[in-house]
Amino acid sequence: MDHFNYRDGVLHAEDVPLTRIAAEVGTPVYVYSAATLTRHFNVFQQALHWAPDYLICYAVKANSNIAVLKLLGDLGAGMDVVSIGEYARARTAGVPGERIVFSGVGKTRDEMRLALEGGIRQFNVESEPELLALSEVASGMGAVAPIAVRVNPDVDAKTHEKIATGKAENKFGIPLARAREVYAQAARLPGIEVVGVDMHIGSQLTDLEPYRQAYAKMADLTRALREDGHVISRLDMGGGLGIPYRRDNNAPPLPIEYGQVIRETVGDLGCSIEIEPGRNIAGNAGVLLSRVIYVKNGEDRDFLIVDAAMNDLIRPAMYGAHHDIVPVIEAPPGVERQPYDVVGPICESGDTFRKGAELPALSAEDLVAFRSAGAYGAVMSSEYNTRPLIPEVMVDGERFAVIRARPTLEEMLSRETLPDWF
Ligand code: LLP
Question: Reduced to 3 states, what is the DSSP secondary structure of residue 18?
Answer without folding.
Answer: helix
